[in-house]
Write a structure and sequence with these properties.
Elements (H helix, E strand, L loop, with lengths): L55 H6 L50 H24 L1 E3 L11 E8 L16 E9 L6 E4 L5 E4 L3 E4 L2 H19 L5 E6 H10 L3 E5 L3 E3 L4 E3 L2 E5 L1 H9 L8 H19 L2 H4 L2 H14 E4 L4 H14 L5 E3 L3 E7 L5 E5 L4 H9 L13
Parallel strand pairs: 1-12, 2-7, 4-13
Antiparallel strand pairs: 2-3, 3-4, 5-6, 7-12, 8-11, 9-10, 14-15
Helix pairs in contact: 2-8, 4-5, 4-8, 5-6, 6-9
Length: about 425
């Protein structure tokens, strides 16, 4: 049997030397029996060459070059060079069964304590406001005059003859305390204590003591009289009875008051030893009413009244009161029970007045009496009254309206 020519020793073809040949294919080492084929794509090019795609059917019938018989004369199929930046395509394994869904974590329920705290923080102030407005007495007091710059508060202490208040045979009621506070649009807040015996012009009634205006026409006439005197329109009217002073002091668990001389006053029932002492409601009431044993008379009483108001506000703003719902309720309830306001004002306006008083009643606060010409002026009827300084009183209230008052503008009486 004859052998094919290619297997005859005499027909043996010379193979090219492997020296200098480049590795072609899938990274295999060059073999001596593999023929090196020059391909144009082996030449480096600056432009990217699109990769050839082979259909799955063709790929299944195509054999890799390593399986071609040596010396068969067949040209090896061209293989695209592998780029370093593009790893060879690998067939993804078949997807397994879908993973089971993880059970949702149960949401933690808010602790009941936190819910209660949030309800108190949000709802408690609203409850106090509604409670205060519903319980507070409102009255017709404002005159309806044209508005003036800033916010003006008239704070009045009424000497009603009532249980827990003043117990004497005097009939009717008068304005025992008259304080005018101005919060200007710019400048400093100021507080003026108008002496109850100040001799002023009462609209439609003529000249008289200012506290007579309340007796003649109630809050409305008193407001009109103060507006006529000061040139400022009253925006909010606040009235407290003398028994209310006692209730407010007790609501903050007492206040510490100071007076530098001894007092034994029968009309006010104040018994006092020089110095500072803790005072309950009844003692604070007597402290603010006493004037016959005061060397400054009505001016001295105004100073002590401002001291009582200041200490009540200080105690109301302490952390003990602010974080104690029981004390908050007692304070709002006492204020709503003992205070009265004009029909257009409410508990929030009262809080604004308290903030203004707190700011003005500091060590450098602008507060005092208006300029006074005489503390013992004799009226045409022969009564003793306080005569305001007619030369400076108008400019004094003009400065007050514009927030331009200084401490030197107030009455300087020793």
């Amino acid at each position: 049997m004859s052998q094919p020519p290619s297997f005859k020793p005499t027909n043996k073809r010379r193979r090219p030397a492997a020296q200098g040949a480049e590795n072609v294919g899938h990274g295999e080492q060059p073999r001596a029996d593999r023929t090196q084929v020059f391909r144009p794509e082996d030449v480096p090019s600056s432009e990217p060459r699109p990769r050839r795609r082979t259909s799955p059917a063709a790929a299944s019938t195509q054999q890799p070059p390593s399986y071609a018989p040596a010396g068969s004369g067949q040209q090896e199929p061209e293989q695209p060079p592998q780029r370093p930046s593009e790893p060879p395509h690998q067939q993804q394994p078949p997807a397994g069964p879908p993973a089971s869904r993880r059970p949702r974590k149960k949401r933690r329920k808010w602790p009941i304590v936190l819910i209660i705290v949030l309800a108190l923080v949000i709802g408690w102030p609203g409850f106090l406001i509604v409670h205060g407005n519903n319980k507070m007495e409102h009255m017709d007091a404002l005159s309806g005059a044209a508005d003036t710059p800033g916010t003006t508060y008239l704070i009045v202490g009424s000497d009603k003859r009532e249980e827990g208040g003043i117990d004497d045979p005097t009939e009717g009621q008068r304005a025992d305390t008259i304080m005018l506070m101005q919060v200007p649009e710019s400048g400093d807040t100021s507080l003026v204590s108008i002496p109850r015996d100040a001799y002023v012009e009462i609209p439609e009634y003529g000249a008289d003591k200012i506290n007579a205006a309340y007796s003649l026409g109630g809050p409305e006439l008193l407001v009109a009289t103060v507006e006529n005197l000061s040139g400022m329109t009253v925006d909010h009217y606040v009235e407290v009875s003398m028994s209310g002073v006692s209730s407010l002091v007790d609501a903050v668990s007492g206040v510490n008051l100071c007076l530098d001389y001894d007092v034994s006053d029968e009309k006010s029932n104040l018994e006092w030893t020089a110095g500072c002492h803790d005072a309950d409601g009844q003692t604070a009431l007597a402290f603010s009413r006493m004037r016959y044993s005061d060397p400054k008379g009505d001016l001295g009483r105004g100073e002590r009244q401002r001291q009582v108001v200041s200490k009540v506000i200080q105690e109301a703003a302490t952390p003990v009161t602010l974080i104690n719902p029981v004390r908050q309720y007692k304070l709002v309830d006492a204020a709503a029970t003992t205070l009265a306001m004009d029909s257009d004002s409410g508990i929030t306006n009262l809080a604004g007045a308290a903030l203004g008083l707190r700011g003005v009643m500091g060590d450098d606060g602008l507060m005092g009496a208006p300029p006074i010409e005489s503390l013992n002026y004799r009226t045409p009827s022969g009564a003793s009254a306080v005569l305001l300084d007619t030369e400076t009183i108008d400019s004094f209230f003009e400065k007050m309206k514009n927030g331009q008052l200084t401490l030197d503008d107030f009455a300087q009486i020793g």
